[in-house]
Automatic annotation (TrEMBL):
<dbReference type="InterPro" id="IPR017871">
    <property type="entry name" value="ABC_transporter-like_CS"/>
</dbReference>
<feature type="domain" description="ABC transporter">
    <location>
        <begin position="5"/>
        <end position="235"/>
    </location>
</feature>
<dbReference type="InterPro" id="IPR003439">
    <property type="entry name" value="ABC_transporter-like_ATP-bd"/>
</dbReference>
<dbReference type="GO" id="GO:0005524">
    <property type="term" value="F:ATP binding"/>
</dbReference>
<dbReference type="InterPro" id="IPR003593">
    <property type="entry name" value="AAA+_ATPase"/>
</dbReference>
<dbReference type="InterPro" id="IPR030660">
    <property type="entry name" value="ABC_branched_ATPase_LivF/BraG"/>
</dbReference>
<keyword id="KW-0813">Transport</keyword>
<dbReference type="InterPro" id="IPR052156">
    <property type="entry name" value="BCAA_Transport_ATP-bd_LivF"/>
</dbReference>
<comment type="similarity">
    <text>Belongs to the ABC transporter superfamily.</text>
</comment>
<keyword id="KW-0067">ATP-binding</keyword>
<dbReference type="GO" id="GO:0015807">
    <property type="term" value="P:L-amino acid transport"/>
</dbReference>
<dbReference type="GO" id="GO:0016887">
    <property type="term" value="F:ATP hydrolysis activity"/>
</dbReference>
<dbReference type="GO" id="GO:0015658">
    <property type="term" value="F:branched-chain amino acid transmembrane transporter activity"/>
</dbReference>
<protein>
    <submittedName>
        <fullName>Branched-chain amino acid transport ATP-binding protein LivF</fullName>
    </submittedName>
</protein>
<keyword id="KW-0029">Amino-acid transport</keyword>
<keyword id="KW-0547">Nucleotide-binding</keyword>
<dbReference type="Pfam" id="PF00005">
    <property type="entry name" value="ABC_tran"/>
</dbReference>
Length: 236
């Protein structure tokens, strides 16, 4: 499998606070990879650095063989990386449809087949296309955030805590849809606090602790690692 994303020795600081301290990992094309870690471990910072919202002090981000860590965020979207941020950040006073159209801002015109694909992935959004996004339920807003990120037709999709605040049933719907998105040729890198659910459907995972990878493996390996079970999965 080809490597689609390579992170090499990434160091990121906010003022005097070091958030990433020599982070290195990779993602292969066609994988679903999950980043697991405690609050403050640097998971969101990792995604924000890949999408160009935060600039590293040191290190490299390489996408499809090209160095992108110095590039502006909108150019990175154009190259093929899209980010559905934590907290959804949808436009509450616009309709579902308008929010989706805005996701295509890097494309000159809205691609009808992409819109149809997204409405097929999330029939709930289709039903509610004229509803104001601010009145959607938490799960529906999450669907919209993912749908909007897909409008730029990414080859790599970054998802920050897609299951945050969702019931187990909705979490399963979101994760099943993420799998379908991957099956449509989009590679997925996601951050999840819900390690148990994420490791059930991801291919591989990395564990972050204070800005560094401390453990990595296939989802099966991580699910059965005593350290992971104790720290993130809870005793059964
Ligand atoms: P969580 O699971 O709680 O969302 P996380 O693993 O995503 O955590 P980050 O949000 O990447 O962690 O934060 C890593 C560290 O950087 C934390 O110590 C955090 O307080 C700090 N940090 C993040 N954003 C900023 C900022 N804008 N200014 C200052 N410090 C920040």
């Amino acid at each position: 499998m080809d490597t689609i994303l390579q992170i090499k020795d990434l160091n990121v600081s906010y003022g005097s606070v070091a958030a990433l301290k020599g982070l290195s990992f990779d993602v292969k094309a066609g994988e679903i990879v999950v980043l697991i870690g405690a609050n403050g471990a640097g998971k969101t910072t990792t995604l924000r650095t890949i999408s160009g919202l935060v600039k590293p002090k040191k290190g490299e981000v390489i996408f499809e063989g090209k160095r992108i860590d110095h590039m502006e965020a909108h150019k990175i979207v154009y190259l093929g990386i899209s980010h559905a941020p934590e907290g959804r950040r949808i436009f509450g006073t616009l309709t579902v449809h308008e929010n989706l159209i805005l996701g295509a801002y890097t494309r000159k015109e809205v691609d009808k087949s992409t819109l149809e694909w997204i409405y097929n992935l999330f029939p709930r959004l289709k039903e509610r296309s004229k509803q104001l996004a601010g009145t959607l339920s938490g799960g529906e807003q999450q669907m919209l955030a993912v749908g909007r990120a897909l409008m730029s037709k990414p080859r790599l999709l970054l998802l920050d805590e897609p299951s945050l605040g969702l019931s187990p049933t909705l979490t399963k719907i979101i994760f099943d849809t993420v799998k379908q998105i991957r099956n449509n040729g989009v590679t997925i890198l996601m951050v999840e606090q819900n390690a148990k659910a994420a490791l059930k459907f991801a291919n591989r995972g990395y564990v972050l602790e204070v800005g560094k990878i401390v453990l990595s493996g296939t989802a099966d390996e991580l699910s059965s690692s005593p350290k992971i079970v104790e720290a993130y999965l809870g005793k059964k």
